[in-house]
Amino acid sequence: MIEVKIGNGMAVTDTPVAHIECFDCPIRHRAVCARCETDELEALEAIKYYRTFDAGQTVIWSGDRMDFVGSVMEGIATLSQTMEDGRTQMVGLLLPSDFVGRPGRESAAYDVTATTQLTMCCFRRKPFEELMIRTPHIGQRLLEMTLDELDAAREWMLLLGRKTAREKIASLLAIIARRDATLKLGPTRGRIVFDLPLTREAMADYLGLTLETVSRQISALKRDGVIVLEGKRHVTVPDFDRLLGETGDDSDGGMPA
Amino acid sequence: MIEVKIGNGMAVTDTPVAHIECFDCPIRHRAVCARCETDELEALEAIKYYRTFDAGQTVIWSGDRMDFVGSVMEGIATLSQTMEDGRTQMVGLLLPSDFVGRPGRESAAYDVTATTQLTMCCFRRKPFEELMIRTPHIGQRLLEMTLDELDAAREWMLLLGRKTAREKIASLLAIIARRDATLKLGPTRGRIVFDLPLTREAMADYLGLTLETVSRQISALKRDGVIVLEGKRHVTVPDFDRLLGETGDDSDGGMPA
DNA sequence: CGCAAGCTTGAGTATTATCAAACGAAGTGG
DNA sequence: CCACTTCGTTTGATAATACTCAAGCTTGCG
């Protein structure tokens, strides 16, 4: 273990990771480098390094100088904003292959936190920006990913502005369930089983609720048989369509048209 | 006046507009074409056309086939989503130079509505997409604009999830005031005067409130001297810092860091 | 003039937040 | 091994914010 100082002086334990060749990278076909040719991958290879974080650790604080951009390799991170008085709102959930940072921006705009064990593939920012100018494939893919994120953010605006607490919880469970099923190549209908990667408090920050309301609504969904819980985190959805019916979205699940 | 049929059969009055040369375009330096060279502008010129809409008219409905993308030239439009039971949430406010549509997407993802008299500069979608491949300047600018929109969306998520009704109204007024001041090259401190481009209902849809709550909070801000109203739409802010103090943001106005 | 649209205000209600207490699991130190 | 703590969570009682339903007010227009 190596002690590393980041921006505001907070000490973070940063474990060295075996270097993976881009060619063998598990997120290669979905990340910002998805469209890169072999020579372009080599250029990225030269400016990349890995960092890992434990669950709960902060990757970077809003306002801190940010000398890298990068991709989530493994694990889950969150983007959040905090008001002066402490109210916080999560504004992004970062999954493997998602991109962190904005080329051209000096400092972080949001707090980035690992909610599980997290591995990131980081690129030094300046060289990455120079590479982007020479390599349209990177910018093209980043545009595509950013447009997708914008759609997701707008979907989330509907949830935050107009859904009830129960619908919010159901929507979050549906999103996690669907993603988990896709990842494991399982079905996205019928019985689905997964683990919640978020605490009740993180869910509350994501949904614009208090953690008590989250807890109560989860209990209510459990009582009504929409979900079955083993422990606090292990969820079984006996009938995914039933869950979708609780989200308030139309039956296709509320994907942007 | 020409009668034009759009996607779902709704008739829209569509006024022909004198063709403006890109070179003379008032939004040229801020729109998606901002980085284009002379020859690139000529290529855009060849595939562009203007359309105008009256206040209240729908530009396109979510799910409708969309054969164009384009920029707002003049006026204001909104992007919104509607749930089955009629609850609606505005997810974007489109101002002059803002871009509408997503290259590569066949159908509209949101309802687009003109809230004032609106002029749009439209590009036929297919030729635009082909042009984008040959012209990195367009994609680069679109990436920049999309990243800005994503930041704005995330700022709005904080508002929707965590701010009180009063803070929401104050935030909206501050955003409109600031923009108006910037546009008119006025001060962004002290006394600011502007017109609201939105009805109370549109404000409610933007803020995730009911129109009654919007009305009450505007009355409250008026009673407390934070704003002065002449009629329903003409607003005077005697002390912009005072208004900012009501938004819940830190004093810099809550711009993303 | 009378109507419609947009807006304001009031009364009562409901949903969610707040404050408070207590539980279970995991980890620590005596 | 067993208190003892801590963290995440659940649940209850109460309060507050915003919603719903309803009435009535301006303003502009046919």
UniProtKB/TrEMBL annotation, chains A, B:
The keyword Ribosomal protein does not apply. Keywords: DNA-binding, Transcription, Transcription regulation. GO terms for cellular component: cytosol. Residues 163-241 form the HTH crp-type domain. GO terms for molecular function: DNA binding; DNA-binding transcription factor activity. It comes from the Bacteria. Transmembrane segments: none annotated. Residues 41-149 form the Cyclic nucleotide-binding domain. The keyword DNA damage does not apply. PANTHER family: CRP FAMILY TRANSCRIPTIONAL REGULATORY PROTEIN, FUMARATE AND NITRATE REDUCTION REGULATORY PROTEIN. This is CRP/FNR family transcriptional regulator.
